Amino acid sequence: MKVLATYNLKGGVGKTSTAVNLAALAARDGLRTLLWDLDPQGSATFLFRVKPKVRGGAGKLLRGSTNAGDRLKGTDVEGLDLLPADFSYRHMDLLLDETKRPTKRLAKVIAPLADDYDLAILDCPPSISLVSESVFEAADALLVPLIPTTLSVRTFEQLLGFVGAEVERPPEIIAFFSMVDARKQLHRSLVADLPSVHPSIVGTAIPAASDVERMGVHRKPVVLSAPNSAAAKAYGALWQDTQDRLSQRRQR
Amino acid sequence: MAQVEGPVSFVLPSDVGIDAVIEALGRDVEVVADGIASTDRVYLDTFDGRVDGSGLTLWRSPSTAKDPTVRLTLEDRAGATRSVIASPSRPDRVLALEVEEEASRDRLESVVGERALIGQVRVRSRVRRLAVCDAEGKTVTRVAIEDPTVVLPKRGSVALERRLHVVAVLGYGRAFSRVLEELTGKIGLRRAAAPLADEAKIAAGVPVGGVSSKVDVELDPGMRADHASALICRRLARTVEANLPGTLADVDPEFLHDLRVAVRRTRSVLKEMKHVLPPEETARARADLRWIQEITGSTRDLDVQLQAWPVMVSTVTPALAIDLPPLRDLLERHRAAAFVRMRRYLQGARFKKAWASWWDFLDGPFVGQATVGTPIAEVAGHRIAAVYKTMVNSGAAIDDKAPPEALHDLRKRGKELRYLLELFGGLWPSDTVKPLVSTLKDLQDVLGRFQDDEVQTVYLRQLGPELAALPGGTDSLIALGLVIDDLASDQQRAREEFAKNFAPFAAADTRNLVRATFGRRAARASRSSR
Ligand SMILES: Nc1ncnc2c1ncn2[C@@H]1O[C@H](COP(=O)(O)OP(=O)(O)OP(=O)(O)O)[C@@H](O)[C@H]1O
Ligand SMILES: [Mg+2]
After folding, report:
1. Residue A131, SS3 per DSSP
2. What's the whole-model pTM score?
3. Residues of chain A positioned with their CB less than 8 A from the CB of B169
4. Residues on chain A touching B2 (C-beta within 8 angstroms)
5. Which of residues 223-252 of A touch B (CB under 8 A)?
6. Architecture of domain B375-521
7. Which residues contact B457 (CB under 8 A, 6 or more apart)?
8. With CB atoms counted within 10 Å of each terminal CB, which end of chain B scores lower, N or C?
């Protein structure tokens, strides 16, 4: 089982939209896919119309007294199952702190599912905390959406520094521009120039599109509800870039 | 992982419309149409039904001339499916090793081994999908209504009963049970008695569960020996015939193997029963059957060599293994030539004539000569006891200095005993036959290794000159030398293990058991008790 995670310290940059669409694309490609909503807001859970309710809450899951496998919900997308979030996830940081080796804990929770799934995608809440550190240890790659501003590029560089220095088993970083507005000069120039400066930024950018916004209304991944839209195609290209990066990593 | 319950299939009678189904389900849930699809599946299995036997279902999408790859879907008992791509080298079969993805390839290989997957029956369906949703519009159970049609080659098609499948969604077990209750309670649907694939096979006249080469003939101990032998020989003759097309088409090596085993067993019956059968015809039939064994022998030997290849390669170091391909090519060429020769014989006039006269014999003089015959249990029991005794005596004489022929000869007797037990063992309680079978098996394993190593050595050695003349042949020859060394030391080990495996076979316990079960006194006792 490969593990991907969408991550950014900043909120509202497109992490959940990416996680949900890539998960749907992976399942459509025939991968047995698991999506773990780690955010107490439960956005991914909501998008799949699943009730934000986890029996036993985050505590039991992290302590290992309930199995992740018993809390899974099949989504309307065949081949894609969801480990939902509920409000108890807001304490995840503290709960992790109480465990032995907290940064290894999330990997341990999904380890028993390794034979049942080909791919797991973790959708992170915006923050840097024990939760994100534990995600960094669990993931083979981090998918990092970047809004094309100079500030967000700086934050990204900080992330690169942190992952490189502090993470025992550093994941591949796959960054991409998100919510790109082609009418903005700054967006255009950052999207055009930065991938050559930062090799971890891939060429694919996700455009700002109302189709993505409307996902909250349709409650269905845009790659399924509007497969021919520009946004859906961009997610398709991002999924391809992701697989390419992962297979390069394997060869190294 | 939380197990999702397996799908449940119902028969949907023609007087129950889809509206009635929706109404039955839709009281407190929303039922949405989720599209109509057509499916076209060719169910695959090995000739002997190994996929079915392990509770799996496998199908492929029908192939097109343009795309030689096929999509296979494997469904387990729980209804979980896995799709994989395979690139078959021939249109009439798929081999496990032709599956592209490794995990699925291994899984399939563990089920079917080297047996080829062949099309059993083709089913075309129109499937209407419904989703049972909760208040959030989330699908909590899937329902599919299927109109299946069996497509018969050149014979049109047969429509099967409409089916309704209920498929659980992970984490929504309660909704699933409720749907099942409503369908059985409200509209009185009954569950389908057999899986769709089985029903389709029956409609197409394809045997469900595959064709077995096992001799499943019920014998009665008091049955006349010639009658019992005839029953067994007929069953074996059908096995030969069932395996002949697959042998001729070279679908997989097991067809030829099973064909040869059936011939070998038949010969064994004729040999053991020769005193109760008409001598002249029996002698002729034995000669014909021996001929069939001979003309199929070299192809089988080469199949065995090729099957042993992976083990052979693994015994030499990787550096030397790269020198082996010319040897493999040579084996394959020889095998191809042997096969062509064999096929010519099997399709030729002599085979046709021999086989027809075998049936003539079976249908005619084989039985019914005398009005009273010896009971089968007496004849077979006597033979089992006699062969066993010979083996114990000659085995006891084998020491470290005994010539290899002594071990080969013992193995031959062992085969004779094995066939007797396989074909007639059912006449005695299994707890008396089983210990003998299992000690015999251990003995035969070690004797088999001893002889196979030798046969393989002799064969490989004689390839030397031919191999040396090929490009890359000298290097291959060096690697071959090591393979042969390895075989020699394995053969030596087998010889050393012989005594250990012979002891339980010849032990006093086993001897007493054989005497008490199969000896003359046992036979007399059982006769007088009747
Ligand atoms: N490409 C896009 N174009 C337009 N709107 C977008 C795009 N991607 C995301 N959005 C919208 O922006 C909002 C935030 O997106 P999303 O939830 O994916 O981000 P997030 O990083 O997961 O947020 P959070 O940090 O709150 O978890 C949502 O309303 C979403 O519909
Ligand atoms: Mg989010």
Report:
1. helix
2. 0.83
3. 73-74
4. 67, 69-72
5. none
6. Alpha solenoid (1.40)
7. B484, B487, B488, B491
8. C
